[in-house]
Amino acid sequence: MKRYDAIVIGAGHNGLTNAAYLAKAGLDVLVVERNPYIGGATVSRELYKGWLYSNCSYVCSLLRPEIARDLELPRHGLQVVPYGGGVTFMQNGDYFGNYADHERQHREIARHSQRDANAYDRFQADVTKQTRLIRPFLMRTPPDPTSFKPRDIKELLYLAKAFTDLGEETLADTLRFWTMSIGDFLDEYFETDVLKAHLAGSGIIGTALGVYSPGTAYVLLHHYMGDVDGNIGAWGFARGGMGAVAEALAKALQAYGGEIRVDAEVDQIIVAHGKVKGVALVGGDELHADIVVSNLDPKRTFTRIMAASDLPADVVTKAKNFKIRGSSGKVNIALDGLPTFHGLDRASELMISDMHIIDSMERMERAYDDWKNGTWSQDPYVDMLIPTQVDPTMAPPGKHMMSIFVQYVPPTLATGDWTDADRDAFGKTVIDQISKYSPDFKDLILDAEIRTPRELEDEVGLTEGNIFQGELTFDQLLFNRPFPGYAQYRGPVRGMYLCGSGTHPGGGVMAAPGANAAREIFRDLRRPNLVPEAYADD
Amino acid sequence: MIRAHDDRRVLHTPFHSRVEAACEINEWEDWKGYTTPVAYTDVELEYFAIRNSCGVFDLTPMTKYRITGPDAGSYLDRLLTRNIAKLAIGQVMYACWCNDAGQVLDDGTLFRLDDNVYRICSQERHLDWLLWSAMGFNVQIEDETEAVAALAFQGPTSCAVLKRMGFAGVENLKPYRFDSFAFSQGEILISRTGFTGDLGYELWVTPEVAESLWDQLMAAGRDYGIRPFGGTALGIARIEAGFIQAGVDFVPAQDAVRTGRSRSPYELGLGWLVHLKKSNFNGRKALIEEKANGSRHNLARLLVEGNKPANNSFIFDRKDNLLGTVTSATWSPTTKSNLAFASLDSPWGRPGDELYAEIYYIRELKWTRVIERCHVVEGAFFDPKRRHATPAWDF
Ligand SMILES: Cc1cc2nc3c(=O)[nH]c(=O)nc-3n(C[C@H](O)[C@H](O)[C@H](O)COP(=O)(O)OP(=O)(O)OC[C@H]3O[C@@H](n4cnc5c(N)ncnc54)[C@H](O)[C@@H]3O)c2cc1C
């Protein structure tokens, strides 16, 4: 039986990143993936002939450019094409266009409120201050605030310095920002409801909280801290869908000599004498290694593929209590042509932007009420995009693919577990919602993939369907992610590590958790670190 | 009522048909959402129109706010660092305004149009801050950028041309004064103001008569060397005049995201605009403290030796310590010297300080680096008598 130096469980983009770095360092690495395909939530699949869906994640910004460059992802086929702006369709027949171009954006906001148009600059500057604070920490391991190790103290000082460099006033703003609601935050800038609703979306995506729930302001930051080619906050399409990210990572991994085995579900991490020994696959195969890295979310890792008897009791309890509530759904649609949206010129560049439905904070909050009541939002918030206007590889010429992210969708219903009929009813709610703003939409539908938290859990392995592998609230961020004492990627058992979005700096197609975990493994192996540092001050 | 969407990438000013026809080299830039010429024909000719005859510049995109109401005066006194009590109707004042931390948001001109009616003109937009500061005051603040079309009309023969257009008595306008004249069934407001430091005026009309104003001006100026000029020529003239520009010589405090990048009025040479004796104004507390404890920076006007413009240069002392950077620089065709503004660490920037600029220049693809001595100058580099004389000269 072959022994590996390291086994990575899960071929999500973080597992692949982690494995690529280990392989680059010369370790003999195997990635085992439960599905017959790789990528996890970073995947493109042809479920309808001729059409590629970005089945889960659909746009790219957070992917750390240092990693993409270091692992030569462009050479391995990754191309990210930026797009800009957004639009919210309004019930009164109007729409609000959030242009990427500053002057046009000003003009459009001024159509609703001259004051808000100018206040947007203040909003932008304040959000930028916060992103500038967080960005340098994306490629660093959080310090343990209770530890007296020189390294932790040094890192804490670094953190303290970053905070004090902000100045008194910004520091106070930061503490508020990390804990307040997106609704309260936006109320400090704007009077226009549709503008607030448009921006608030970034505060609740993937989050089982409402626009007036504390903690949602940070979630907005999580969507603003990435960049495309140095444009902070900008988003792009991965050519070929988000699966292109995973494919490029897999090629990098293989180029360094790593292996991937699909259709290989791990049943248990094997532990003996407080050390990992390898993994046991469903079906009985055992694979051995002294290093086992889990790309699964922490709850799944510690409650499904590890035995409670192998773990400290506090870890089992913390894993059980880890907040990982599902709140989102996804509908991917093959379209026979480009739909029209009310009031919007088909040639408008807003057609190639994040298109939202829900034009008031009241409706946003009501959408959350439905989630609490155990049903999907009857008046759902959607973030939809038609990348095939830019990407020629995802649908035949003249045909289109539409990606629809839906908030809110509960992990279980008031009536019990999701059934196929529930799923189809949810899909109908979404399609009906969009049809109110696009008269020809329904007639153009050729195929639809409908995904509720049930599908996200069963097919992708995200517990409760939580898209970030755990909620992005302050109690689960930085040195508290996934839980206090375990934020440095090391598990409670020697040789065992976590590398998924459930670790710092959290969810999104970022690759930072995977790379950061690799850095810690190198440290434990006393090998030179191969993981790059973040670009300075950009 | 739903206002129509305007999906255009850039807007046209009310002068656009004329500007476009005159802009032979088709070099445009986006100025606050309007397309405006960088240059029309030849920067040198345009520049010398400003200094030798007269030149026309489309000023419409400049941000303009109308401030009215019984508390307008006391409100502006609270907003601006300068004492405005003595500002008479028909008078204009240069001013700056700060946030609560005493950091400059912008500089601009304040027009007193009537008893309780004022106009603020500035580079940046400030409605949010203006309304924020208006709490507790009975004032109305309105953005009138689009409602007012404006031309800068600058140069030694500008007054003669205006007289020729029939604006009787315009020569008696003193600097920083304005008056209304009959024009095309309506009114034109003419102020003796500008950004060139020369004899010159700014002309303010409603958008409907903009094209006719342009045409009449060009016709009247034909024998007086009139020429439209773009942003590049203006950029040279304003440095000669010693005028700083928001976004170029300082980061407006509302846009600054890095700690320490904004500037106070003292740090920009605008200390003379700060009247700490006023009972209350935005930033007063912080500025009193700064006055007592000293500033972090100085904006110095530098005469740079040699003839290579010191754009983006680092400034060093004799021992190669880095003191700051150049924010604006130009060769000055009128004073035949090499000019720069530099933001320096305190206390540097005093007259007599020994400063050196590190200048890079290119000749046939070969870059060369020179170190040039710089001399601190106080006041404008160029300040002709004709700028101040009233009645205004004919050339
Ligand atoms: C619907 C949706 C939309 C999203 N939209 C965006 C977006 O537009 N942009 C963005 O940046 N982020 C988005 N995200 C978030 C982002 O996709 C995820 O945070 C990220 O992809 C997670 O990557 P990961 O590598 O940490 O984990 P995962 O992708 O969850 O990978 C875990 C892998 O482990 C495998 N696995 C599970 N159990 C086992 C087992 N027992 N044995 C072996 N393998 C196993 C799974 O099959 C999976 O491949 C979205 C997520 C979802 C679900």
Number of domains of chain A: 2
Largest interface, and how many residues on either side?
A: A-B, 31 and 26 residues
The radius of gyration computed from the alpha-carbon positions of chain B, rounded to a whole number of angstroms, is 21 Å
For the sheet with most strands of chain A, the description reads: 7 strands, mixed
Q: What is the straight-line distance between the termini of chain A?
A: 49 Å
Strand order of the largest sheet of chain B: 10-11-12-9-3-13
Ends distance of chain B: 53 Å
CATH class of the domain at 16-60 and 148-241 in chain B: Alpha Beta
**Strand-residue proportion of chain B:** 25-35%
* Regions with little confidence, pLDDT below 50 for 5+ residues of chain A: none
Structural class estimated from helices and strands of chain B: alpha+beta
Shape of chain A: globular
Q: Care to describe what's here?
A:
The complex is a heterodimer of chains A (538) and B (395). Chain A has 17 helices and 20 strands. In chain A, α1 runs parallel beside α17, α3 packs across α4 and α8 (193-204) packs across α9. Chain A folds into 2 domains: 3-80 and 240-322 and 469-524, 3-Layer(bba) Sandwich (FAD/NAD(P)-binding domain); 84-230 and 325-463. Chain A has 538 residues and is of the alpha/beta class. Chain A has helices at residues 13-24, 65-70, 102-112, 114-134, 150-164, 168-179, 182-187, 193-204, 216-224, 243-255, 298-303, 313-321, 361-372, 420-435, 441-444, 453-460, 512-524; strands at residues 3-9, 29-32, 44-48, 51-54, 80-83, 86-89, 95-98, 227-228, 231-232, 235-238, 259-261, 266-272, 275-281, 286-294, 328-335, 354-357, 381-385, 400-407, 445-451, 496-498. In chain A, strands 1, 2, 11, 12, 13, 14 and 20 form a 7-stranded mixed β-sheet that branches. Chain A has a 7-stranded mixed β-sheet with strand order 7-6-16-17-18-15-19, sandwiched between helices. Chain B has 395 residues and is α+β, with helices and mostly antiparallel strands. Among the domains of chain B are: 16-60 and 148-241, Gyrase A, domain 2; 296-380, Aminomethyltransferase beta-barrel domains (Elongation Factor Tu (Ef-tu), domain 3, Beta Barrel), CATH 2.40.30.110. Helices cover 18% and strands 33% of the residues of chain B. Chain B has helices at 16-22, 43-52, 72-79, 127-133, 158-164, 210-221, 231-240, 284-293, and strands spanning 27-31, 34-39, 54-58, 63-68, 92-98, 104-114, 117-122, 140-143, 149-154, 178-183, 186-191, 200-205, 226-228, 297-304, 314-316, 322-332, 337-345, 355-363, 366-377. The chains are: A alpha/beta (538), B alpha+beta (395). Chain A binds chain B through residues 92-95, 97, 101, 103-104, 106-108, 111, 114-115, 117-119, 121-122, 125, 128-129, 132, 165-167, 169-170, 343, 345, 348, and chain B through 2-3, 5-11, 30, 32-33, 101, 125-129, 131, 143, 254-259. Residues 9-15, 32-35, 40-42, 56-59, 62, 265-266, 295-296, 305, 328, 330, 405, 456, 460-462, 467-469, 500-501, 507-509 of chain A line the site of flavin-adenine dinucleotide.
